[in-house]
Model the fold of this input.
Amino acid sequence: MEIGNQIKNLRTQRGLTQETVAAALGVTSQAVSKWENNAALPDIALLPSISAYFGVTIDELFALTDEQRITRIRNMLYESREVEDAVLDREVAFLQDKARREPKNSEVRLILAWIENFKAQSHRRQAEYYAKEAIQLDPDSRDAYGELADAVGVMCQDWYAYPHTDYIDWYQAFIAQHPDNWRAYLWLMDGLIQDRRYAEAEACCDKLARINHTFRVLDYRARIAFAKGDGARALELWEQMVRDYPEDWMAWSSLGDGYAFHQQYDRALDCYREARRLQTHPKAFVDPIQAMAQLYERMGDIPKAIEMDQEQSQSPGGLGHHPGRGGRRSGAGDPETPEEADSRIGRSSTTPPGREVRAALHFGRNAARAKIVLDLQMKII
Done:
C-alpha cells in the first residue's frame, strides 16, 4: 500500500478533514491532498510527526505487506551486528501474531528462532567483553575464565559440564517419527560427537548409510574417527570419499576440513579451491570461501583473507546464509537460480557498500584485519 493511501485511511478512520491534518502538521491542505492521491510524497522529515499524529509507527505508516516486512527482518538480521531491543521486540510481536494466525507457517517460526539466536549472540559478545575485563582486573578469578569460555563457546575438558542430552533426545524422537529424514541424522551425530558418545554416533551413521548414498556417510565416519583420536584413519576415509565422489564439491570441501583439522593448511586450501571450481552456477554456497578466509587468517595472510571475504560478499550466497547451515546438510547440490538464492537468504543480490567492513566485524576478525578492510574501503570511496 502506498503511504498516501495509508494517510488517507488513517485520516478517514478518525473522521478528520484534510484541513485539520494539514494544520496539525504545518502544511497546506493541498499538500495533504497530493499525498493521498499519490501525486507527491511527504518530506522525510515529516514522517515522525505524521506517525506521532496518527499514533502509529513509521512502519505502520508505510503499511508494509507481511512479505515485505519479513524480507526486511531478514535483511536486518543478515546485515546487522547489533539491533536495538525495542526493534527486535516489535518484530517478534509481529511474527508471533502471524504465527498464531498461520499455525502451519514454518518460515515465521524459523525467523523467530533466528531472532532469538541473534539476541543470544549479542549477549555472548557482551559476556565476552565483561569476562575479559574481569580477568584483566583479577587474573586469579577462576570463575571469570569459565564465563569467558562459556561466552565464546569453548568447551572445558569436563565432558559432563556441557551435555546436549535434551538436543540428542529430541532428534532421536524426531527420527523415530521420520526415519527417512537424512538431515536429522547429521544433526544428531553432531550432538553425539560433541558429547563423545561415539558408539551411538557410529550406529547412527550405519542407519544413515541405509537411506543416504552420498559422500556424507564417509564424511561422518571420518569425523567420528577424528573425534576418537584416530586422525590417520579419518584422513583415509576423507581421501576415499573424494575418490568415490570426485565431482561432488561438498566432498572436496569436507576433505579440506579434514586437512584443516590436521593443520595441513596448504592441502586444505587446494581442496577448497577444487570445491569452489566444481560448484555449478550460481555458486550460492560460500562454505569453501569462508573456510579459506579463516585459514589465510590463521596463516597470517590478512590481505588474502580479506580477498576471500570480499569474494563471498559478492556471491549469490552472500556472507553465509543463516538458514542453510552449510552445504553438507543441504540437498544433493542442485544449482540455484539467482532469484532462488535471493529468496533463500531474503535479500537483494546487489552487494551494499561497506559489506566488507561489516564482514570483518561480523565474523569476529582481528583488529588488523578490520583495519585493512577499512583502508580498502577508503581507497574505493
